[in-house]
Amino acid sequence: MNSVPEGIVEHILSQMSNARDIASCACVSKRWKDSVPFLPALYFPRGVFDGVSRADADAAISHMVSSAVRLEELVIYCPFSAASLASCLALRSRSLRRLELRMDSAADKMSGAEAAPGRLDAIGSAENLEALKLWGVSLNKSPKWGVLQRLRVLEIVGAAVRDNALKDAVQACPKLVELALLGCDGCSSVSIELDCLEKCRLDFLGSANSSLYLSSPRLVLLEVQGFSWIRVNERHCNVYKVDVGKLPDLEYLSLRGVQWTWNAISSVLQSGSEVKHLLMKIEFTGDLDTLQAFPQIDLVDFFNNHQKLQKFEIHGAMFAALCQKNSLKNLHSRFSIPCLEEVLITVRSPLNAEQKLNTLNSLVKYSVNLRKMVIQISKMRNCQDIADEFFREICKFKHMNHNIVHIE
């Protein structure tokens, strides 16, 4: 190593982040010790200070952080005090970009009810943070972070939270692109309104009556667990992935948007197989900027997979998918739609008119409890003769089923 140029030595040693390894290397020579200021990352493992007093551990953390003048990433899993954290973040507030803290390791050795909020509030001084990950934090009170304008990634794992405290913590990070709240407990209502959010993962424990409201127009990935009531604002243009797990108690499901990938649509429909009220108002599938029509949906398979469906609102693209050439190929005399009572269908195009009329007839014929079918055709895009002919056929269909079918 003595023959290696200074810059190369600094580069090699800067690849380390484990605090114990760095401390060992700093003892080798003054030359190696002088490389510490160039460290971009520091990682303090959970047991790195076992057998060492709290004061000595805090002093060691503060000393190493103060020495690393270009520090961009700080990970602390070992016990630490609020004072040492505040000192470290104040020293490196300009350079620090990524921060990860394990709060539960500190909580078991701290005394006093105000200790946890003190550690959490200290994060507000790291105003240039771009990524923040917290383990085992207690969010019973709103953190005093101010506004973290540069924060793009927030992940909170295994937290005890309260509704208002969580809402305030998220609102303090208005530019979030990725949000993950995993294994969190204590919330009855979660409201997230972030204009820049693209990826959101939520996994909540506890109350069986918890609710989620999410308003993020740029959302492309959504994974949800633990909510009995979910509403995602319909302003979303493009949704690429949705993972909500199995939802056996879900009764109402509304899917809205301009463009969802077919995998995202299929995932949600499979998760809500027990749903009683389904609204489908998505216009296109496809990836990125490629807008595509829905693929063919087999009518028999669809209703066999949604046997508890009582009310079905179908808008444009979904209805067209149920009216493809082979969508009715599996119909047979024993097939029935047992629970369907109301259907609202928006027809956006007169194309494929014969198949659409066959599908309407099949819905009436096989829905043994159908009481009302509303057909909305006022927004039909094509106003040429083909549309007039299709409208006449719809009127005949209504006349034959006048007790059930209504035209709007």
Automatic annotation (TrEMBL):
**What lineage is this protein's organism placed in?**
Eukaryota, Viridiplantae, Streptophyta, Embryophyta, Tracheophyta
Which SUPFAM superfamilies does the entry link to?
F-box domain, L domain-like
What sections of the protein cross the membrane?
Answer: none
Q: What is the organism of origin for this protein?
A: Dioscorea zingiberensis
Q: Where is the F-box domain?
A: 2-35
This chain belongs to the protein called F-box domain-containing protein
